[in-house]
Amino acid sequence: MTGHHGSIAVLDVDGILADFEGHWRQCAELILGRAIPKVSEDHHLRARYALNAKEYDVVWQAFHETEWASVPLYDHASELVLTLEDMGCTVWAVTSIDVRHRVARAESLDGLIPPARIVCVGHAAPASAKAAVLQDLGAIAFLDDHPANANAAIGSVPLSVLLDRGYHGLETPEYGVTVIDDALDFPVLVEQLLRRTGKGRAA
Asked: Which residue in 29, 44, 126, 153 could disulfide with 160, CB within 3.0 to 4.6 Å?
């Protein structure tokens, strides 16, 4: 018996499970027909790759049309999800993409997280949108690579964790957000939380 069955852990997808940045850059190079060196650690892709507005829009248009289904998973993705499941957690994905891409997103996750547990909050959703989903799910833990989302989640979930990718131009994680630099540290934190709270343990 796992003892913690039913505890919900929520993962962001891009930057956590899937290499969105690498894939977007590849797509941009293909469409623009040139190498696109990274010029800064700015979070905004346009600034990071020094693209003009027209180039940026053209790449996004193509990406939305054909690419969401093929964003590759990081090497650590399955280990991250399976470790959480081994601890008895139910893993959900909450992703900031439009719901029209939900089927493509499920395809790219390749069964790692079932389609019924993938929530798309929308491309331009405010940080509070993910927090609302966490609240609705009664999640115990959340992992994102965007400080605004981790900050917004503080009141909605006992454990809000930021995977720090070193991007510039983002807000600072607030007191109450745990910052890690390796996604596989997340299950360790979740396990500590479960031990501490006895959450979900059968009486």
From this structure: 153
